[in-house]
Amino acid sequence: xxxxxxxxxxxxxxxxxxxxxxxxxxxxxxxxxxxxxxxxxxxxxxxxxxxxxxxxxxxxxxxxxxxxxxxxxxxxxxxxxxxxxxxxxxxxxxxxxxxxxxxxxxxxxxxxxxxxxxxxxxxxxxxxxxxxxxxxxxxxxxxxxxxxxxxxxxxxxxxxxxxxxxxxxxxxxxxxxxxxxxxxxxxxxxxxxxxxxxxxxxxxxxxxxxxxxxxxxxxxxxxxxxxxxxxxxxxxxx
Length: 238
Known about the structure:
The protein is of the alpha/beta class. Helix content is 40%, strand content 15%.
């Protein structure tokens, strides 16, 4: 199988998770992090899922699975401990033209879920195309130490610089060498060591007067916390 890597915008999109156990809980939490509208279909759910339901973050269909639960879904994840139900979910999704992922069953997946590291807007995904989720998890752990919270701050700053340049009627293609200079001159490292004087000097030297770190960052990020998502693909055991 040769997969096509893709990042999906699931904000306010209806996503259905069939199942209410620990695997389903992890899938729900990943979807909520992407601000999807999540529906869980299961007669029973974990305590963590129940809290999300009680808080109104998740809609719960408190009954056994039926195909009507899938209507209007952008993607569906099947995560029950009943193979017959999982197979039925996959077949129903095929009939309805909905992308489907069945946990621990790559042969019943239109897409697989990589092992992911998040640092703000930076997303590093590792996949073995379903061959060894355990190895993908190992690689992810090795990479975690390479990417600290400075990457979140760096990308937030670069985004704000880009927004200001565009507001000043700069042609987007004219920005390329400016950003390449900021990168090659060590902006990321200056952020890592919190050297604000060095940051400001680099910004002014590259972009001109009026570009200051604190001014650009005064609207604080909602979160620069490091986030790590779970294992790759569909397998929860290997």
